Amino acid sequence: MTFRYSYTFPISGPNKLPRFRKWAAEHAPEIEVSLPPQVPVKSEAMTIRLKSIEDRQTLLSRMNGVKL
After folding, report:
1. At a CB cut-off of 8 Å and minimum separation 6, what does 51 contact?
2. In percent, how much of the chain has pLDDT > 70?
3. 3-class DSSP assignment, residue 8
4. What residues does 7 pair with on adjacent strands?
5. Residues 11 and 20 sit within 8 Å (Cβ to Cβ)
6. Do the beta carbons of residue 28 and residue 59 sit within 8 Å?
7. Bridge partner residues of 49 (DSSP)
8. Which residues contact 64 (CB under 8 A, 6 or more apart)?
9. For residue 12, what are the contacts with CB-CB under 8 A and spacing of at least 6?
10. Once rounded to an integer, what is the mean pLDDT over residues 11-40?
11. In whole numbers, what is the pLDDT of the chain averaged over residues?
12. What is the CA radius of gyration of the chain?
């Protein structure tokens, strides 16, 4: 199965990938994501890839109101 769905969310500051990985491990360990190889420090958003629309909806609901 491929990562067909994407989700872009606001995130700023350095170390975006490690911060997201830590959050995902604690709050959504059952959802498989494909992360970009790197995200520029000046970027204000990050896009991740997901396998299903259900995973996208679950992640969207869990990230509601979360500041990373």
Report:
1. 1, 2, 3, 4, 5, 32
2. 99
3. strand
4. 48
5. yes
6. yes
7. 6, 34
8. none
9. 43, 44
10. 94
11. 93
12. 11
